[in-house]
Amino acid sequence: MEWCMNPIAVKIGPSFFNLAVATRIICSPEWLGNEEMNSIMFIWRVNTSFKRWTPTHVAFMPSIFCLQMDTEFNKFVPNKKTYELHEFLISYGRGELPAHGRTDQVWGVDVDRLYFPQFVNVNHWIAVCINIIERKVEVFDCNRGRNRQYVEKFAALIPRIVKAVAPPESKKQLLVSPYSIVDVPMKARLNKSCADCGAYALKHLQCHLLGLDLGLVNDEIIQGCRQKIAVDLWETTFS
Questions:
Q1: Strand, coil or helix: what is 228?
Q2: Is the model's pLDDT at 227 over the cut of 80?
Q3: The 180-183 sheet, strands edge to edge
Q4: Contact at 8 Å (CB) between 146 and 125?
Q5: What is the tens place of the pLDDT at every residue in 115-147?
Q6: Distance in angstroms (rounded) separating the CA atoms of residues 1 and 23
Q7: Which residue, 198, 45, 193, 62, is CA-closest to 120?
Q8: Residue 237, SS3?
Q9: For strand 136-140 and strand 124-131, is the pairing parallel, antiparallel, or unpaired?
């Protein structure tokens, strides 16, 4: 209550928690923005690094990662045989990026799964899990849309990054062929507000991460989920 009366912006990793962000999270039908998505990824990254929760061998990517992958994929497609990975992609694979919450955990060695939300079609959030061990890209979309065009960059480039950062003794065994793309089944008629996709994306990632049933998240509880996201950010900010 005191903070609401005097809402001072507070930094969380690369983003800020302020009244505008809090209002956007809590007040449906408002779309979640990059600030809150990045903040949640940062919190999860820190929780994993300090072993504050059970999941291990996982990494969480910021929204800029998707944009950078877009740029590199556009360079890769016309020159697949001669394309060379940009150094910043290798830095991601080594856990040197993102700089906020740097882990130094190597993909394919210390990290088996990558988690992140992705903004698609200029108006919708989906969730993505890249399973390095099983060589697949899992897509979680509360609208049950077709998203192959938005995630094929990960299927093509992630195996190349994993091979580039692998220990010398295991490089020869690693393939650079694209990962498979899997659309995770969803219930029909979710996100009736058309504005809760961001909350669904975060909660689907969390359910998958913790081994919970995705069916637990539905329109009846999504407003409560939004409030929990805001509370998690607030507690991290002021704890």
A1: helix
A2: yes
A3: 58-60, 113-120, 124-131, 136-140, 180-183
A4: no
A5: 999 999 999 999 999 999 999 999 999 999 999
A6: 14
A7: 198
A8: helix
A9: antiparallel
